[in-house]
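Render 3-dehydroquinate dehydratase in 3D.
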Amino acid sequence: MPDTVHVLNGPNLNLLGTREPEVYGRATIADVEAACRAACERHGLDLVFRQTNHEGELVTFLQEARGSRGVVLNAAAYTHTSVAIADAIKAVGLNVVEVHLSNVFAREAFRHHSYVSPVARGVICGLGVDGYRLAIDALATAGDRVS
Ligand code: DQA
């Protein structure tokens, strides 16, 4: 379990590749998973990669990540609305790196607030699929510093 990283994706990210490509790029969710798998392999880590369109399921996925090295979380729109997801992160004491493909701060004002950020270890946004890789690198190399 401590050698496993969970990458959890929220609503509409299953549509990556065709969803607003000018905002989110052309990479599909399968491309994101492949990039995450390659990053984990480089660090000798196992990967659990999941996507859901349902808020409660994301809460369950977070609970199931207990005991892992950490979580890369793109909660998508739930980032901006979900107290339940923030509570789950606090409840399980996970190292979470919040990731967004787009630069949410360069977009609509409602995307500037995140319920996840105050309970996350770090935040990466605006770097596309690279953000996922960088988050995995951080979880892999930060060791005890990430607490
Ligand atoms: C997103 C940004 C969110 O504001 C949006 O609701 C998403 C995707 C991103 O990866 O840029 O669905 O999390």
